[in-house]
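Hypothesis: this fold can be encoded by more than one sequence.
Test: take the C-alpha cells below, design a sequence, compare later.
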C-alpha cells in the first residue's frame, strides 16, 4: 500500500486504484522525486496539477509537503474513487492544502481550464502506452498554463523515447529508476 512519505500528513496510507490500468509510482521513485523537488524549492505554497492522477499519490505528497493548492485530474472511475478517498484521508491527517478532484480526460481539462493556472508544479504520469503524438499535444497545451518558473515532471517508461517538448518547454534534468524515467522540464523563458 502506498503512503504519504513526509510533511503534514506523513505516514497517511493511500487507497490504491483497483483496476488493471494503473501503474503506481513506487515509494522509492517518489522519495527520489520529492527530494529533488525540495532542492528546487518548488513545493512551498505551490499550485500543483497532477494529470493522470491515479490514486493522487504525487499531488497529495506535494500537498503534505506544503503546496497550497492541488488539482488531481483523471477520467477513470476507480481512480477518481481513490483520489476522493485519499483527499479525505489527507484532510483528516491535517493537510492544510486545498485539494480538488476533477473527473475529466486530460486534454479537455487543459483546454477548458487553462485559466485556472498558472501552475507552479505539474506531474504528468500518463499510461506508458499513450501515443507520443497525444503526449505532444498535451505538452503543447500544458505549456500555456505554466507559471514562468514552473517545474513539470513527466513520468514515462525508461524504454520510451524522450518526449517532444516543443518550442515552449525544455528539459533540464532526467533520471531513471529501473523501469521508470523522470523528465524534469521548465518553460522556455521569453526575451
Amino acid at each position: 500500500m502506498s503512503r504519504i512519505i513526509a510533511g503534514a500528513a506523513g505516514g497517511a496510507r493511500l487507497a490504491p486504484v483497483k483496476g488493471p490500468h494503473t501503474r503506481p509510482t513506487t515509494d522509492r521513485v517518489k522519495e527520489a522525486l520529492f527530494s529533488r523537488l525540495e532542492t528546487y524549492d518548488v513545493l512551498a505554497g505551490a499550485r500543483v496539477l497532477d494529470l493522470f492522477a491515479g490514486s493522487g499519490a504525487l499531488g497529495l505528497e506535494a500537498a503534505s509537503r506544503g503546496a497550497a493548492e492541488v488539482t488531481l485530474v483523471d477520467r477513470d472511475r476507480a481512480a477518481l474513487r481513490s483520489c476522493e478517498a485519499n483527499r479525505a484521508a489527507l484532510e483528516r491527517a491535517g493537510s492544510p492544502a486545498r485539494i480538488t478532484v476533477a473527473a475529466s480526460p486530460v486534454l479537455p481539462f487543459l483546454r477548458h481550464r487553462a485559466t485556472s493556472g498558472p501552475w507552479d508544479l505539474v506531474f504528468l504520469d500518463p499510461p506508458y502506452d499513450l501515443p507520443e503524438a497525444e503526449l505532444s499535444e498535451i505538452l503543447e497545451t500544458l505549456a500555456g498554463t505554466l507559471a514562468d518558473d514552473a517545474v513539470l515532471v513527466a513520468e514515462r517508461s525508461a524504454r520510451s523515447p524522450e518526449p517532444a517538448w516543443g518550442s515552449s518547454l525544455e528539459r533540464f534534468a532526467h533520471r531513471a529508476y529501473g523501469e521508470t524515467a523522470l523528465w524534469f522540464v521548465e518553460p522556455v523563458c521569453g526575451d
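Residues 77-92 form the longest helix (16 residues). The chain has one domain: 27-187.
Hypothesis status: open.
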